Amino acid sequence: MRFLADAGISPKTVEFLRGNGHDAVHIRELGMQRATDEMLVERARADERILLTFDLDFGSILALGVVARPSVVIFRLADERAASVNRKLEGVISEQAGALASGALILVEDARYRIRRLPIK
Asked: Quick one: which of 34, 37, 35 has its CA closest to 72?
């Protein structure tokens, strides 16, 4: 799978994904740390990447559009350290690979995750 990590996502999560055979890049590596959320969504769509973020605004952007991609994983965790994010992300990838591939908004919380298929109607 291909991932684009937003500013709040640790570079350690990018390393974790790469170590597990995924193609992952952080927005800092692309020089996009000042890009708008809309620009990041468009970059993820163009590059066919799943966007990883802590920012709820991405859910709103997807809800306003009629787009089926990119998939976005939003983390809402009490512990935002990379190790915690990586554990949760690993579970989502293994359990929801099909949803991520076809287009989904996944909200990852401490005790569960919720999935909305894209486009949101």
From this structure: 37
